[in-house]
Design a protein that fits this description.
The chain is about 55% helix and about 20% strand. By secondary structure, it is of the alpha+beta class. It is rod-shaped and about 130 Å long. Pfam families: GGDEF.
Amino acid sequence: MLHVQQVIIPFLAYMIPAFYLFYMALDIISRNPRKTEHRLVSLMIFSYFLLLVEEYLRHLLPLEYSPVLVNGWFGNVGVIIPALGFHFIAAITDLHKKMPRHLYPYIFYLPLVFILLNAATETTMFTSREFVQMGIWKVPEYNTAYYTTVTFGNIIIMVYMMILAFYLQKELNRERKRLYKTLLLTMGLMLVWTSVFGYIPFGSGLPPHPFIYAGIIWGFALRLAMNRHNFLTTFKSRYETLFNLNPLAILLVNRTGLIIDSNPGAKKMLYLEENHDTNISEFIHPGVMKKWEQAFESGLNDQLKIKGLETRFMINDEKKDVVIEGDYLLVDEHPHYILILRDVTGDMEKSRRISFLAYHDYLTGLSNRRYFYKRFEERVKEWKENHEQSLLALVLIDLDHFKHVNDQYGHTVGDQFLKHVAYLLKESMLDQGVAARLGGDEFVLFLENVSSMDAIKEYMSELYQTINKNPFVSGNIHIPVNMSIGVSICPSHGETCDELLRYADQSMYNIKKSSGNDFEIFPGKQDTT
């Protein structure tokens, strides 16, 4: 019959630390069950838990059960711990990268063969078979097998330390170096502990096998490493780090659009306060509000991702082009969106600028030759398909005496003069067609939906009136705008841009040779309807 102290004292000695190690093992594996390091550390700590549980149960059973429990349970778990330890050391250093794939990590588990041999032969390979009762404790005989076990364990710890010391010298990352130092110090303490409490027989003064309490040192050191060096982090903490360090703006919004959480990038971009109560719709530009609401509502209702949604924000009265990526998720069983915002204002401006320059003259802002040809061909195609009765007119313009302007006033004034002419031509067009600069001092107009030849002549007359009333003036410089103009008609003179330009050029050249500052419609068949 066991006395109360034979139950309570072993419980305090073994099960209280065992519960602590069990908690540690669960905590670590729950942080990231898919990570190798988490699995290995959790298994190592759980192994120490099993050692403590075995010792507690051994003290509840009669003395004759001690050899069986120590040999079949304690000894076998003691073989597993070094195998896990080597695997762990290789995983956290670069050792695993230097090992062949067909060896790593299997080579570390070769000692498990001893477990099979132990079970097959029913012999005691690394533990004592003799136990004596000393007070409440069932103490092993300190024989050769016992000291061999302790010595082997110390050698394993020293090999761990040698590997860590080697990689400590090669490691450049400051945080990893601190981690290695913490583990080295821990293993040094474990080595001292197992040496003192493994080699010195304390009799009934301490619980048997006191060296197994080194597992508590190991567990405590890992807790320290987790707190100080971000070691064995959880999924949550890793995602929090990504969330907070990501330079992009990240928002968590509920189904009404209320911003539930925001990272520093979002706070900086949107000027959010810490305790804000803001809806994302407050930033959406009115012009794209309907587009945003449709994407947001349909995404939530159908649990769809938002992919590359181009929208526009108003932030502190400033327009910002923003691309939104988003995904649907449930938070506390309620639908939410995690949104990533990219401010592409600069990129969009560059894109718009590139697109503008592809079809516009960089100096005057008018359409360029490329766009003029493109638009003319599109319009002629429409004109044919719709069987329109109206005329299309091409007006070719060449400035008179522009070389003299450049020579007398310089190219800066010459450029300003060209901009002034471009402005007058653009204003004269209104919605009647396209004004373009072909190059140098040569411009071209494309008049749409002209009812008759008289309408073309009337437009030309109004154009000259506008030009004559608006000479170029800059300071003391006063330059009248004179231009020679040739006009060709579609379909009378052709239906392609090249044809019409050729005929208009001939008429313009005729004016240029005579007095200049006038226009001529190319002679030939003219539809006056």
